[in-house]
């Protein structure tokens, strides 16, 4: 391992810690097929199509023929879907369950069934278990991340096994969710547990494309408010480009770096490298690109460790948080307005007028005198950035670094008139800022003279 890679790891870990600390929320993990290949030997797109060739006797030509003819894996899969339908209604009928022969079933259901069956069996295979054992420590580190949510285009149920307290939400059901998802695995291309849900053939992708803007609108809050880490994708992956295409103008005005999006790239030679690009330009169409942070490594364990360093969250159940959010939403949206529950409005009014009382109503203990703390330090760094006219926290954090460079004082390092760190649990800190901080950073932004007050 080179000294350059050691230094690179430290820089990335510090950057992740700063991003996590500044945003004050858990990361979102966007998981692609690269992780399935790494941890249980799942095939690539081409590998899956090759397997489908081998399984169907009516596909008479080699895979290379179809690749020459169609070029796109989606078009190849669509052609195979037609052949699988013919096979299912002929000599292959015994290979499919009777319910698939209903006239209401889509034509692609037969190939989707075979794909789903393959992934369901693969997870329990001996080879897959051996691959998982070879990466056991890395997987344990991944489990400790406790992400806010996971988004994936993978069909398999590997993530459900790894995060049993997280609830899978499949396909179109994502669009029907009425509140910000927490503790959920959003399977935007379907799941092997429901073959019909798989986004596989051309018409599936066309339908997905037609509804992509609605999905992007749902995910926008995730992208804007959470650190987002892409694992198992390349920068050229059409899935990344499709999601970022609808939101790049909001996240990166004038082509600026998006400070909270990281593309993690696997590179077996990373330990021998001496230079590492810190950014990656992701082309989303012929005219537009998105600048995101780039991480290169042969191992993901140290990255997962950086993401999972908040030990205070280890005892927090995503299932409980998800249930609390869902029930609160239902109470406010339906039950209370429709008077389907008995409500003590005096108690409720007193509770909502005080953060401390509201927390007690939920059975949550609070910090001493939080109302005075919130009155003096009401802003997150994101709010500070917005008050300064920026789109995110990143530029405000740069002004704080500028103060440190000019005055030798890091206002985030201590509790002072500009900043306070509130401890929640044993290790987790929430950083809040005062109006004094906004006034100070305004002067720094405008190039005015300023002095730090104690």
Inertia-based shape: globular
Cross-sheet strand order for the largest sheet: 3-4-2-1-5-6-8-7
Mean pLDDT: 84
Query: Would you report the number of β strands?
Result: 10
What amount of the residues lies in strands? 5-15%
Estimate nothing, just give the exact number of structural domains. Answer: 2
Main sheet record: 8 strands, mixed
The helix-and-strand class reads alpha/beta
Tally of individual helices: 21
Give me the Rg, rounded: 25 Å
Low-confidence stretches: none
Instruction: Indicate the percent of residues in helices.
Output: 40-55%
C-alpha termini separation = 45 Å
Pfam families: SIR2_2 (PF13289)
Protein name: SIR2-like domain-containing protein
What would you note in describing this structure?
It is a single chain. This protein has 454 residues and is of the alpha/beta class. The chain has 2 domains: 1-343, no CATH class; 377-454, no CATH class. Helix content is 48%, strand content 12%. It contains 21 helices and 10 strands. It has helices at residues 3-23, 33-40, 45-55, 63-70, 73-88, 109-122, 126-134, 136-143, 158-162, 173-176, 202-225, 238-245, 248-251, 301-307, 318-335, 345-352, 355-361, 370-376, 381-387, 394-407, 435-446; strands spanning 28-31, 149-152, 167-170, 184-187, 228-231, 257-266, 279-283, 289-297, 419-424, 428-433. The strands form 2 sheets. It has an 8-stranded mixed sheet. Strands 9-10 form a two-stranded antiparallel sheet. Helix 10 (173-176) links the parallel strand 3 (167-170) and strand 4 (184-187). Helix 1 (3-23) runs parallel beside helix 14 and helix 19 (381-387) packs across helix 20. The longest helix is centred in the middle third of the chain and has 24 residues, at 202-225. This is SIR2-like domain-containing protein.
């Amino acid at each position: 391992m080179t000294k350059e890679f050691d230094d690179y790891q430290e820089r990335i870990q510090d950057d992740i810690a700063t991003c996590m600390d500044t945003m004050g929320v858990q990361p979102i993990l966007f998981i692609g097929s690269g992780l399935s290949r790494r941890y249980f030997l799942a095939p690539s797109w081409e590998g899956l199509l090759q397997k489908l060739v081998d399984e169907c006797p009516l596909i008479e030509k080699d895979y290379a023929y179809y690749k020459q003819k169609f070029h796109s894996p989606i078009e190849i899969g669509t052609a195979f879907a037609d052949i699988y339908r013919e096979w299912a209604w002929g000599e292959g009928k015994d290979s499919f369950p009777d319910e698939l022969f209903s006239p209401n079933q889509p034509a692609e259901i037969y190939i989707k069934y075979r794909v789903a069956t393959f992934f369901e069996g693969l997870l329990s295979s001996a080879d897959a278990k051996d691959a998982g054992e070879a990466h056991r420590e890395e997987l344990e580190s991944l489990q400790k991340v406790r992400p806010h949510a996971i988004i994936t285009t993978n069909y398999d149920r590997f993530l459900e096994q790894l995060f049993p307290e997280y609830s899978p939400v499949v396909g179109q059901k994502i669009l029907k969710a009425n509140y910000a998802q927490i503790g959920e695995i959003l399977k935007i291309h379907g799941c092997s547990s429901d073959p019909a849900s798989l986004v596989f053939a051309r018409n599936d992708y066309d339908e997905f494309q037609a509804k992509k803007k609605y999905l992007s609108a749902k995910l926008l809050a995730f992208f804007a408010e959470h650190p987002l880490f892409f694992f198992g994708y390349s920068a050229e992956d059409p899935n990344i480009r499709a999601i970022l295409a609808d939101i790049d103008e909001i996240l990166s005005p004038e082509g600026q770096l998006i400070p909270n999006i990281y593309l993690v790239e696997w590179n077996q030679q990373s330990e021998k490298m001496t230079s590492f690009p810190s950014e990656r330009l992701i082309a989303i169409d012929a005219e537009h690109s998105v600048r995101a942070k780039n991480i290169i490594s042969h191992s993901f364990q140290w990255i997962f460790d950086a993401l999972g360093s908040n030990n205070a969250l280890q005892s927090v159940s995503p299932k409980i948080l998800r249930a609390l959010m869902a029930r609160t939403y239902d109470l406010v949206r339906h039950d209370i307005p429709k008077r389907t529950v008995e409500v003590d409005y005096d108690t409720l009014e007193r509770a909502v007028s005080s953060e401390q009382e509201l927390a007690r109503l939920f059975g949550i203990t609070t910090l001493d005198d939080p109302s005075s703390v919130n009155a003096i330090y009401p802003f997150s760094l994101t709010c500070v950035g917005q008050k300064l006219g920026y789109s995110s926290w990143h530029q405000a954090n740069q002004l704080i670094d500028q103060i440190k460079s000019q005055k030798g004082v890091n206002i985030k390092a201590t509790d002072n008139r500009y900043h306070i760190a509130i401890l929640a649990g044993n290790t987790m800190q929430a950083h809040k800022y005062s109006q004094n901080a906004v006034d100070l950073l305004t002067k720094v932004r405008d190039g005015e003279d300023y002095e730090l007050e104690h």
